[in-house]
Amino acid sequence: MKSETTPSVQTALLLIDLQNDFVEGGALAVPGGSEVIEVANRLIPKFDWVVASQDWHPADHQSFASQHADLAVGDRFQLGGLPQIAWPDHCVEDTHGAEFVASLNQDQVDQVVRKGTNPQIDSYSAFYDNGHQQSTGLADDLRRRGVEQIVVMGLATDYCVRASVLDALTEGFRVTLVVDGCRGVEMVPGDVQRSLDEMQAAGAELLCSDDL
Ligand code: VGL
Ligand code: ZN
């Protein structure tokens, strides 16, 4: 029986970081990033539960190159004992860059998950920070709703999509990745293909949005 407060759904759509800073003109623009908004808007009506993650950093987030006198954007360093890339300032809380892209059909987004709020640690996945110390609560939340399968798309393939997919699989969900709904940073050429291979090898099903 369905309850009013927690409608039971089997499959959820998870939209990763469809924010201004990750599309053309943004601080950490992913090539072709804006092209996936149309894919999201086409998929959203097909799902009873739609979750959107939002990268949401304090202005002094330690993943920002600007916070380190000796680092430039793209440099690699250690943050809290974890490998880290120095990013440009992006998705600073309550700024335009952190807002969802205006053309995204937000009316049918049921749940927003913010991540990266702790200045000391980065958080690519919608489920856990990069050290897997703190949960966002999303996995338990989805299980409580009866979700067994998660369909994932968004930005960026080689960072937040990859981390979210791998965590979702570890949490025991069946995961489908919508390949044409993703774009990557490709800090190193080949990163997108390597990420796709890794997600598939870990158990994700790779599909095109037309096949959903
Ligand atoms: C992301 C780098 C830093 C992403 C977020 O959404 O993939 N990448 N923060
Ligand atoms: Zn970030």
UniProtKB/TrEMBL annotation:
Protein name, UniProt field: Nicotinamidase
Organism of derivation: Stieleria maiorica
Pathway where it operates: Cofactor biosynthesis; nicotinate biosynthesis; nicotinate from nicotinamide: step 1/1
Top-level taxonomy: Bacteria, Pseudomonadati, Planctomycetota, Planctomycetia, Pirellulales
GO biological process terms on file: pyridine nucleotide biosynthetic process
Keyword Ligase: no
InterPro entries (UniProt xref): Isochorismatase-like_dom, Isochorismatase-like_sf, Isochorismatase_Nicotinamidase
Domain of life from the UniProt record: Bacteria
Enzyme superclass (EC): hydrolase
Gene3D superfamilies for this protein: Isochorismatase-like
NCBIfam families in the record: PRK11609.1 (NF008623)
Keyword list, A-Z: Hydrolase, Metal-binding, Pyridine nucleotide biosynthesis
The EC number(s) this enzyme carries: 3.5.1.19
Family, similarity comment: Belongs to the isochorismatase family.
Isochorismatase-like domain mapped to chain residues: 11-210
GO molecular function: metal ion binding; nicotinamidase activity
Pfam families membership: Isochorismatase
